[in-house]
Amino acid sequence: MRKIPLRLWFIGIVGTLILVVGILLLRRVLVNHSFVEAYDREEYLSQEEEKLLKFNFPESFVPYYNLGNAAYRSGDYNSAISYYTEALKNYPSEKKDCLIRINLALSMCNTIDFYNLDTQEKIDTALFVLYKARDVLLEKGCATDEGDGHNADAQQLKEDIDKMIEMLKNPEQNNNNNQQQDENNQSEPNDDSSGSNQNPSDREKKAKKELEDNKKDAMEDRKNQQGDLEKWSDYIDGQGDSGPGGDEEGGGGSGQDVSPW
Fold first, then answer.
1. Which of 58, 113, 198, 223 has its CA 20 to 30 A from that of 11?
2. Which domains are seen in the chain, by residue range?
């Protein structure tokens, strides 16, 4: 029996490995392309995309990034946070790194129910989340405290988060002008308008009105904060090259072709 040369064994093994890798890469491209097309139709094929988490090379961050976008669009912000966090661990390029950080920060902010911050404990928890989201943007210079971050969208989101933090930390300052105006309207120029001449029922009505006004102002502030987040909702949908992932030329920006890889 003729002995097969070692060189032929080597060529056969290498050829088989190349074939297997090629098949895996082709499968990945096809699955990701299908995911992107379904994503544009607001259909999220997460189960198929999750299969790409194994042997996820060469751009290993992409499946996590895509799954994070799908989870965000589905309103599952906690899952989105997990996927984006994993995407950052898989060495995305600098450009994609900032996009992932923006999406991660938005997911964190959207876990806050601004309409239901009715206790100090809830406000403190919301502040903790906002500070964490802020830190995500500041890391690696996507945004900076000086305002010169190397990603304009990350810098703008950081500024919006700063406003939310300030409104939660100092709600009395936001309501100060309204309260002063109410007090001026309630004041009378004559001598009979002093607090000592008011009967208990009048003082009670005044205190009740001030409390209701404060609650109304606080709710308006919460509505404004929620609005600050809602204006970013299109970002995950593909604005600013942050749609389902692909190569550096793709990503789903407005008017762009979405390339899976």
1. 58
2. 6-183+210-241 (1.25.40.10)
